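Structure first, sequence second, as always.
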């Protein structure tokens, strides 16, 4: 029985290598590993209890690391004996830098089994071996991500355990979203998502912090619209002269959002992606007929804002997509108003309304756009 494969892991070669040889990591990542005791340098005694398909039973195994070349490669040699028979396996592991923060691990292995377990057939055993190896690397991937993360820890934190990732480019972020799908969640300003994490209403495996993506910041005039980067803060929006000039209704709306402190961190893209029906920005951009730019590996699309908000805290974005920009057409009605009622200033609106209105020269109403929000 033999096989090979490769996997990309978060972290540079040194970090990954250290994790791979860490007995604590191995104990937690080897399927059915009950105990792993170091006997001498690079030799461990392992108690395994494997229960996959017909391969059930306990093995007393010895695991030896050979030809260790830090941080490039090593051999893993396993001999195990137990009720179901014996296993002899040898694997070669190589690490190559993909970039500063990613490593590619490639492996090849060969294994022989004997005794009762051999009777279940090579095809079945091949499948079981694959399953055990895939499980090992899935767990390793998670552990390496954990070691990469700064300040991550378990029971002392209010949120459930997650691995913290901090990409520095949009491309890297999209790769992570593609790779982790449902298991990864973006964090931008954190003003809505941190409370959600703390209340454990969301328990992502990977938290993808996008605050370093400079390309998603800023407000600029381009053609017939103003483009607002998703990471632009609510405070930047409030203070921006172009916004004041072209869309004064936004300035009216933003001052109702929380407090200066929350607006300093909360982002425009985060507000839209969060899709809280009582939030001021989704409502305002809806009235302004803005376009929302959403990106994934395969596509950059313009989401129709009229169909973007599906229901409470839900948009039409897929887990592998990121909101990158909001484009607001310059041609807007001249009349505007934003009003809301909340129990105290800074609280979420119980009810809010935005109105954009244009009149002809005689003062007769030509068009009205009204959007309603609230709890
Ligand atoms: C005390 C307090 C009072 C507040 N009061 C108000 C208020 O009155 N009105 C109001 O509107 N808001 C209020 N907020 C929420 C605040 O406006 C948030 O900043 C905003 O809702 C989310 O923006 P964020 O950047 O903080 O997003 P985060 O909290 O980081 O993320 C929110 C959600 O959006 C997703 N997300 C973020 N960015 C992107 C992106 N670019 N692409 C895809 N998904 C993304 C995240 O995965 C998460 O699901 C308040 C917050 C606090 C703490």
């Amino acid at each position: 029985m033999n096989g090979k494969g490769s996997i990309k892991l978060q972290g540079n070669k040194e970090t990954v290598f250290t994790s791979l040889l860490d007995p604590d990591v191995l104990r937690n990542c080897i399927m059915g590993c009950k105990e792993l005791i170091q006997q001498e340098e690079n030799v461990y005694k392992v108690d395994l209890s494997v229960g996959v398909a017909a391969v059930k039973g306990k093995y007393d195994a010895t695991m030896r690391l050979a030809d260790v070349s830090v941080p490039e490669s090593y051999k893993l040699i396993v001999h195990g004996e137990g009720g179901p028979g014996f296993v002899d396996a040898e694997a070669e592991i190589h690490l190559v830098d993909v970039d500063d923060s990613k490593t590619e691990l490639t492996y090849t292995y060969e294994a022989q089994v004997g005794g009762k377990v051999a009777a279940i057939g090579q095809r079945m055993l091949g499948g079981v071996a694959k399953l055990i190896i895939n499980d090992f690397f899935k767990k390793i991937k998670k552990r390496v991500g954990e070691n990469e993360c700064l300040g991550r820890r378990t029971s002392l934190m209010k949120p459930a355990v997650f691995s913290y990732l901090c990409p520095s480019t949009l491309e890297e972020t999209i790769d992570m979203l593609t790779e982790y799908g449902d298991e990864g969640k973006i964090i931008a300003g954190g003003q809505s998502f941190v409370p959600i994490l703390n209340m454990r209403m969301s328990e992502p495996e990977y938290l993808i912090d996008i605050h370093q993506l400079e390309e998603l910041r800023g407000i600029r005039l381009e053609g017939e619209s103003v483009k607002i980067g998703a990471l632009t803060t609510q405070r930047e929006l409030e203070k921006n002269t172009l916004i004041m000039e072209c869309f004064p209704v936004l300035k009216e709306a933003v001052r109702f959002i929380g407090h200066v402190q929350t607006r300093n961190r909360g982002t425009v893209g985060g507000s839209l992606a969060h899709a809280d029906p009582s939030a001021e920005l989704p409502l305002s951009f809806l009235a302004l007929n803005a376009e929302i730019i959403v990106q994934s590996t395969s596509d950059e699309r313009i989401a129709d804002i009229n169909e973007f908000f599906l229901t409470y805290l839900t948009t039409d974005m897929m887990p592998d997509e990121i909101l990158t920009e909001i484009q607001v057409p310059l041609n807007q009605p001249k009349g505007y108003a934003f009003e809301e009622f909340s129990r105290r200033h800074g609280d979420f609106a119980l009810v809010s309304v935005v109105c954009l209105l244009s009149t002809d020269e005689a003062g007769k109403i030509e068009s009205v756009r009204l959007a309603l929000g609230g709890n």
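Margin note: Residues 185-193, 230, 257-258, 262, 266-267, 269-271, 273-274, 276, 279-280, 322-323, 348 surround flavin-adenine dinucleotide (CB under 6 Å).
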